# Entry
Amino acid sequence: MVMVIDELKKAAVKDLIKTGKRMDGRSFDKYRDIVIKTNVISAAEGSADVTIGKSRVIAGVKLEIVEPFSDRPNEGTLTVGADLLPTAHETFEEGPPSPESIELARVVDRGIRAAECIDLKSLVVAEDKVWGVYVDIYVIDHDGNLIDTAMIAATAALNSMRVPTYRDEKVIRNETKPMKLTVIPTASTFVKIGDKIILDPSYAEEIVADARITYSVGDNMLYAIQKAGSGSFTRDEVMSMLDRSFEQRKYLLSLLEKV
Amino acid sequence: MGGHSDTPLIVNGKRIDGRELDELRPITIEAGVLNRANGSAYLTWGNNKVIAAVYGPREVFPKHQTDPYKAVVRCRYLMAPFSTEDHGRSGPNRRSREISKVMREAFENVIIAEIYPKTAIDIYVDIIEAQGSTRVAGLTAAAVALANAGIPMRDIPIAVSVGKIDNKIAVDMMKEEDNFGQADMPVAINPTNKEIILLQMDGKMTREEFSHALDLVYSKVEEIHNLQKEALKQYFKKSSASMEENGSSVRVEKPIEQATENFTKEIPAEQQ
# Structure
């Protein structure tokens, strides 16, 4: 589908970036306003409603008793899913998951999993019974950079998670104890437009971008990378964006820790 | 990932299959292995076995995917149900769909799609046997298949994986190293301009380790690219030899300009 307005906007966005400016007046290394709310869904064990600019993601965490994976008998399980709702954008359709929604879920999954930020060993409740942690990412409004929005929502939801009690083979959902993440991984996404690289792309910037890359990081530790798009990056660019991700981590953490 | 094994992955400085940290498994590539495909390649990389096929440029089905300005590039990476120790389900899964996406984007970087508007170029990567780092093996093979199909490309990309095992950075992760190592990072590079067209990573790496991992990747670009070029050379040598046997020659008898001149002359004037 070709969006006429999008096509017309493309040239304007590109020309502006060339001169070192962005449509919303931001500098190349600045996030739009980020708002994080947690405990927004009372039925869920953890939840968060996050906006970056006009992009909005609700993440819910549900816990169910499951059998552990045979190769990890002493650990709870983690499953991350993502839905690009038709409410969020005219190109999002009902039906089987698109490569984009699969990628979104898997990039967030890897960022969380590689950081080993959930103490999965503490989620064993009985022999062959563990908590399965289900993180579901609901994209309800799309104005670019869904990965960072989803990553903040998922980590904020997980950090607000309360684990129910399991007694006499019964789940008691109104008897809970909190479980904080051991470390909060943060993700920063950049896009390349021409030879310029900008943080936190808006939707208009995303559609003119040649390439995109996301870094999930901890304190001085890299957890995950995902490059996408048909453009390319040089080695120097890849190194410098990693440094910028470590820099942005301080800011993102300050927001997440305030919640 | 994350060291879930007690068995060491490095003993006396050597990896479990006896390799050095900066050593690739043996790689073989053969171009033009399929009968019907426009281009193909068979690649073995350690115990990985990959068949890559390219069909196109051809008509686009379903039609709504057609791009009036360029060829659409489609890529399908798939692991055979019998390719791994445990039986896998046939057909694509979430992992294979994601790999197909990033692989397609990497090839969109090199394929000169503007030459063939309203067509599709289909790339099929089938992993027949999997022993770690199959996406980079698949991408390296598919690049040869594309060249074999005569698809115009800016470059013939290579791919290789790096990772971290027992706190050391090593190139070309095999299955056990991927499963029990501390990080895994597949990378695809354009050999000519050295730019990165595919990059994924998960695990734990410091900035220094990441930089060292990239060094290792770049140190292997030429070695892998030479194997791709050799496979294509062998293919053309073989096909020209067999054509001569059949009494035909692959040499272009007339310069192309002259050939087109003759062609235009044959068309009656009122149709031109």
